[in-house]
What does this fold into?
Amino acid sequence: QVQLVESGGGLVQAGGSLRLSCAASGIVFADNVMDWYRRAPGKERELVARITPGYSTFYADSVKGRFTISRDHANKAIYLQMDSLKPEDTAVYYCHAVQMAQALHPDLGSWGQGIQVTVSS
It folds into this structure.
């Protein structure tokens, strides 16, 4: 059974930092692309950051230079370091895992339960 468990969310003032973590189990971690998505109220789901098994990364333009995604193969975990946070970063953040061959089809992957990040102005 696949489990993705997020932690580290909360309330922070604009300009502050948070670090999200996601612990994965039930998957072959080395075979999976790992992502952070977010959904803000009234908006569509957005891919925030992606990291491949080989550590290649992708970032949404809105977070480039402020967020950093990383992965730890030994502990089957990924992280999202979020700096210079803005009120528009407020959203529920989701950890996502998808096998490399299905990386273009996120709905074929597995999702965490989501964690709230709120940035106050």
Q: What stands out?
A: DSSP finds no helices and eleven strands in the chain. The chain has a mean pLDDT of 96. The first strand starts at residue 3 and ends at 7. The CA atoms of residues 12 and 64 lie 19 Å apart.
